[in-house]
Amino acid sequence: MLMVFMLTILSIVTFLLFNAVPTDPARLTCGKTCSPATIEANRIRLGLDQPLISQYLEWIKGIFAGRTYGSGTATFNCDAPCLGYSFRNGEQVTDMILTSLPVTIYLAIGAFVLWMVGGISTGIYAARKKGKWQDRAIMGATLVGYSLPVFFIGILMLIFVVVRWNILPYPSYVGPNVDTLQFLQTMILPWISLAILYAAYYTRLTRSQMLDTMSEDYIRTARAKGLPEKTVLRKHALRAGLTPIVTSAGLDLAGLLGGAVITEYIFGLPGLGRLAIGAVTEYDLPTITATTLVAATFIIVANIVVDLLYAAIDPRVRLQ
Amino acid sequence: MNKTTSIRFGVGVASVALLLSACSSKSDNNSQSGTAGGTLYILTQAEQILHLDPQRNYTGEDLAFASGFLNRTLTQYALSKDNNAASQIQADLATDTGTASNGGKTWEFTLRDGVKWEDGKPVTCADVAYGVSRTFATDVITDGPTYAISLLDIPKADGVSEYPGPYKASAAQQALFDKAVACDGNKITFSLGAPTADFNYAVTLSAFAPVRKDADTGEKYDDSVLSNGPYKIASYVKKNKLVLVRNDQWSKDTDPIRPAFPDSIEYVFSIAQPLLTQRLMKDSGKDAMAISPDGVDPTQLAVIFGDAKYTNRRLNDYDPYVRYIAINTKKVPNVKHRQAMLAALNRADLRKIAGGKYAGDDADGVVKPNIGQDYAATGLWDGLLGEAIPDTGNVALAKKLIAESGEKFPNPIVFDYGQSPTADKSASAIVAAMARAGIVVKPNPIEVGAYYGIVLDPAKQGSLSAGGWGPDWSNASTVLPELFTPGGGFNLSQFDDKEFTAESDAAKAIADRAEQATAWQALNVKAAELALVIPTRFGKEQRIQGSMVQGAYIWGPYGSYPYGALSVSQ
């Protein structure tokens, strides 16, 4: 219920915000010599002359019941859930999002797996080697990784791995079911670019959580009982330190699902982030509104999932 | 949208004529030389071609691409590196470049026999008429040029045509169009509202290209156009790739313009710019057969233009646009005041901010050399206003002109511009330069998307407005009347002078092209002398292409590659 309320508020704010900008979508529908009369005629035909509240209600109606655009023999239906129609691209926004979303999901999930596995395991290792050269080396490396912006890492990898050394072909996205090898060749660098940034953070986070929990009395008790060190680390130390990691991971993953704008741009991935940026540069208001709403939905859903995971990880927060 | 991801080569059986053309190493079409066969690759940052629908296509590069490969028009420009030669039109779908009568108010073209759509059906007069009619459906056919609406003799009510386009016209409304665009067998006749001596240039725009009614899918036609050119769409996945293969229904015998050398074309989208230029510089594999309509990454300009190894692969030539600052003559009515602003401006600073020597040349008017015969130097900076004005400005002359005006300068002057970091810097430079002559400029940055909506509204426009203009066809009739007459579509100068308008109308009606060019040259000088705009830059663009690409140059009419003439060595 709360989620529906939040999404409703969000949709109103997003819709009003982007329709309040001074850009005139009707002006953008015709060329440079477009007459004011034609602009006005198009404004009426596109329904942009209606009060914002009417436009919003029509938009909401489209999501649940679909709507009709155009007139005469050029009339066409936008089936529910209709998030609008992009007159810049001549496509239903829902279709554009459904085409872009899988790319972003593949990107986000792949990078997520890499950074979680890499970051958490390195963090645990660093915690175990606290104060030793391995710990200092890892902490130094994470500082560097955390400091490098993703566009720098991405471009660097493209120029060296692809252009100079020819280790991988030029990225050209295809779905995994079309050509799995090309998919992997295209996605590996974006995954690594994103993972380097996030893994650095998760290494440091895991290390600090592990060090906190490993100094607790119950860890000393577990060791005194004679439990193997692996069991102590996995079942007692890591699980107790997992809550803040899960919180961060959930929100980071949701953020990426809303579109990894820079990564998608550098590697030419046709995901949600690129769709949003393209919409912004073309003043494609229906697409901007819809991509913002989708990204926000991911964040809200991720928050709920994280809350549910808390209960699974830590029995103390379970509802009776 | 056609979202086939597979790349299909060699679809269909090539005709004998096509096979013959593929086997020859030279073409005699328009004396173009090149190597037949292979694949030409086009790399771009863009996610798609903005519009393939002929009636919606309105950017130089896309027009050149589509006219070279997919959409033929009644007339088309010659494929030539020489601007004067390229600005000459040739018969394309028509048998000649058209016949004017009724004082230039009626134009007649006869279609060639044997031109076919990709499905084998003939291109008919009705197809041309239907294509032209689509422009009137302004709610569906957006973004395209509206010359059909403004030129054809169809009544308008409050500026809106009484013909609403083919999708929802009543029989009576359709009759209005059918009267203005009439077919008689292979002969198509256009009735215009006013004498238009260069209507045969206007029809080079794909807005006047044929579209077959039974293939028209309205807005969706943008993604799956039916070709009558030498290639057809094999697959089109936006953000990924557009693949063209030979159209086996196209015959070289019916096309005097396009040599159509490559066997296929691959337009690859969504390549980020640093990588794009790097790939073309490296010139390996398929990239040696690649071009890019995008400019060179600015960080690589010095390398590409400083290293001799790129000499044969780099281009540095005019883009279609003249950049200028329009002076609102309603707010600055005194010609001496306007001339003073021309004299005070530091044009060198503006060019430096825009990118230095790569940004373009000092402009001396609104007509640019790449238009061909309509350009002649105006002498604006060489004494036209009384003294020479170097590109750093002539402050003494500016002060003198203000003193001679007999009126106080109308300070402050509001300068409208679309906001960007570069434009902000330019605005600061303009403020500083004008201040030297006692002219107070107040910058008015406007959000880019709202900019033209504001400056084209006389009630909201300031005294100075940043502008840029490129001709819609190679005739200054799409420049001077558009910029400086009340009926023009981009009269940021708000200039309304009966004598100038009469001269402009007279020039439009001159049928002799050389004589007309002389008239335009004189009007260009007059506009410069009246200081209706401050011309700042004849814009230039820089490109690099692969070493196996043949026939690459900047084609004057569109400021683009001459797509129809490109080939790849084997």
What is the element layout, followed by pairings?
The complex is a heterodimer of chains A (320) and B (570).
Chain A: H1 2-19, H2 36-45, H3 52-65, E1 67-69, E2 76-78, E3 85-86, E4 91-92, H4 93-128, H5 133-147, H6 150-164, H7 180-214, H8 217-224, H9 229-257, H10 261-266, H11 272-281, H12 285-313
Antiparallel strand pairs in A: 1-2, 3-4
Helix pairs in contact in A: 1-12, 4-5, 4-7, 4-9, 4-12, 5-7, 6-7, 7-9, 8-9, 9-12, 11-12
Chain B: H1 16-23, E1 39-43, H2 60-69, E2 75-77, H3 83-86, E3 89-91, E4 99-101, E5 106-110, H4 125-134, H5 147-151, E6 156-157, E7 160-161, H6 171-180, E8 181-184, E9 187-191, H7 199-202, E10 231-237, E11 241-246, E12 264-268, H8 273-282, E13 290-291, H9 301-304, E14 314-327, H10 335-344, H11 347-354, E15 360-361, H12 395-405, E16 413-418, H13 421-435, E17 441-446, H14 448-455, E18 464-469, H15 480-484, H16 498-509, H17 513-529, E19 533-544, E20 549-550, E21 567-568
Parallel strand pairs in B: 1-12, 1-13, 16-17, 16-18
Antiparallel strand pairs in B: 2-3, 4-5, 5-9, 6-7, 8-9, 10-11, 11-12, 14-18, 14-19, 15-19, 20-21
Helix pairs in contact in B: 10-12, 11-13, 16-17
Summarize this, please?
The complex is a heterodimer of chains A (320) and B (570). Helix content of chain A is 70%, strand content 3%.
